[in-house]
Amino acid sequence: MTDSCEVLVIGAGLAGLQCARELEDAGREVLLWEASDAVGGRIRTDRIDGFLVDRGFQVLNPAYPAVRRWVDVAALGLQAFGAGIRVRREDSLTVLAHPLREAALTLQTLRSGLLGPRSLAGLLRWAVPAIAGHRRPHGADVALREALDRAGCSGEIRTVVDRFFAGVLLEDEGSSSNDFAQQLLRVFATGVPGLPREGMQALPQQLADGLAGPVRTSTRVESIAPDGEATLVTAAGSAIRARHVVLAADPVGAARLAGGDAPAMKGVLTHWFASDSSPSDAHMIYLDGRTRPGGPLINAAVISNAAPSYAPAGRHLVQTSALLGPGRPVPTDEDVVRHAGEIFGTSTAGWELVARQEVRRALPVQPPPLRARLPQTGTSGLIVCGDYRETASIQGALVSGHRAAGAILGRTR
User: Fold this and answer.
1) Residue 139 reports pLDDT greater than 70
2) pLDDT given at position 237
3) Tens digits of per-residue pLDDT, 342-361?
4) Is the pLDDT of residue 377 over 80?
5) How far is CA 311 from CA 171, 275, 281, 375, in A?
6) How far is 167 from 368, CA to CA, in rounded Å?
7) φ, ψ for residue 405 (rounded to 5)?
8) Which of 110, 275, 319, 368 matches a 20 to 30 Å C-alpha distance to 382?
9) How many domains would you assign to the chain?
10) Domain limits at 106?
């Protein structure tokens, strides 16, 4: 006899977990299945030789409205980065810091050589409306590259802006939605990202711990089909009839189960290195701001400076990230280490490789015009959610899960 339930949520990433939690809070009977061996989706953390290693460099910004609303940030023990970036120039290493949150670095920022009057004016023309929350007319969204060109953002500061967003958006062509980039800029301006004490996976684990029952992991769904007034879902060795099915799988997995096209995905290569001595005492992310970068890296950071829990006592953890994608050669470990040494301006002798991660499906593309709030109802009455239905971010994933729960509960928002 086939089991039955009121709601089956497929996928225990942030969207699926948030959806399940809200449905349970409303008194609904919910089962949650996950194909992997643990919750988190694309947010996972491994412990290797005493180091915490996230699967791809990710950060949590407490300024996201959805995080403020639904996440107990204090319980995560968030360890903050410095509010700024370190920039490798041709002949120096300089800093650009938040004028309010890093006031002690204001003079260094002004003397960085990156903020000439003309380039600064162009940057402000682009950034100030975003930080102030001004909205453009509907349909006015363009690619980030075009928006920066229109504002007259140029010179070395333009190179820094391009490299910074390459690390955030995982593309270096400026092809992403400018509206999305400006949403992210506003969040960075109002909050300082950090890393949870137990790694990024502590975020989805907190959501899972709030559920009434355990998530059923290692359960890969094979098919979804209408069955009268319900939906029949089969997995290896089991089947269940559900009144409602929420498909919160990754975009590619969701397309496999429900049909339709999956969005293109962007990839990242992340290396994690251990060292007995730190290449820097800074708590900030490093960028190569040279006109011709010395290698493949879009950013690097001494993670253990900002998040000491990520490394054993007396040791240091360094991350580097490079883009992956069609037609783009995969960087060698040697190129990565050499480029990291140039960015930090230090020797990399003695660095030990802790982990090397190729994350081919790290983020969905987000071209203009920004298509947030895509319909939650998919084929055959399925409710579909995930960051690719909103914005490619933690904010987008949580909001999409909220909207999926609302579709079942009859909420209008």
Assistant:
1) no
2) 81
3) 999 999 999 999 999 999 99
4) no
5) 29, 10, 15, 43
6) 19
7) -60, -40
8) 368
9) 3
10) 45-113+192-198+265-364
